[in-house]
Amino acid sequence: xxxxxxxxxxxxxxxxxxxxxxxxxxxxxxxxxxxxxxxxxxxxxxxxxxxxxxxxxxxxxxxxxxxxxxxxxxxxxxxxxxxxxxxxxxxxxxxxxxxxxxxxxxxxxxxxxxxxxxxxxxxxxxxxxxxxxxxxxxxxxxxxxxxxxxxxxxxxxxxxxxxxxxxxxxxxxxxxxxxxxxxxxxxxxxxxxxxxxxxxxxxxxxxxxxxxxxxxxxxxxxxxxxxxxxxxxxxxxxxxxxxxxxxxxxxxxxxxxxxxxxxxxxxxxxxxxxxxxxxxxxxxxxxxxxxxxxxxxxxxxxxxxxxxxxxxxxxxxxxxxxxxxx
Length: 326
Prior knowledge:
Among the domains are: 2-80 and 212-227, Rossmann fold (3-Layer(aba) Sandwich), CATH 3.40.50.1400; 83-204, Rossmann fold. Helix content is 38%, strand content 9%. The chain contains 10 helices and 6 strands. The strands form 2 sheets. The chain has a 4-stranded parallel beta sheet with strand order 4-3-5-6, sandwiched between helices. Strands 1-2 form a two-stranded parallel ribbon. Helix 1 (2-9) crosses helix 8 (212-227) and helix 4 runs antiparallel to helix 8 (212-227).
């Protein structure tokens, strides 16, 4: 995707970095730009929605780098609910429908959009908005929103509820930028439910990837920073406002919780299980397995998600992990 973006922003140099799990890390990308002699950096979060990563972790890394080097960094906004992003998702849905073997009316088809899932209700609600835009755009009979982790409903329990609506076909759309363990898990959970409901046709759409409209959205975010009109939604930000049920998060310190997994790419069984304790990654959109030192306590100071024990939430993954072990 970065390679596709470079010619659209030329002659401005473009580098990239990962917050966690993969290399180059953010600092490497920033250092590469500094070595090229840039005097100012425009940083765009490669996040679909603004949750803990976009609001806390990335700004913390950028601010630390500026404090150490003196290089000024202007921070843009996430991709967000955007006409181009919705159209890109719509393109993936249409590709899926075009490849289907049978002709089923849209009115008899249920669309299920899968978001990453976060402990930030603002980010979770934005996934639901994308679902509604797609449902109305196509004219599907119904739409549901489920999540791959942290919040509820998760994919498997959400799909088991959805099939009770009686639709002939279910189209499952992973609203993710790229592939990884979470997209694979979505497909595996979908297959589990499909096996129990042979009377329903399940279709799996592709993730967003480097769709040209996604790249166009990144370019728009850069132009917003250049124009000075970057604006995030602060009215529903749980760190700034008294959001119902999350009042305890107002004023929480802006700090990164992922320094210990910068550049690491091995598997961490505990975090793959979406543990409901202190280790709860927020809003992950670039997903890879991650590892921790064996003596690491997993105490990253993440606020506990108030609905971690919801019967349709992270606790349901315990059953899935037991199945995959067997």
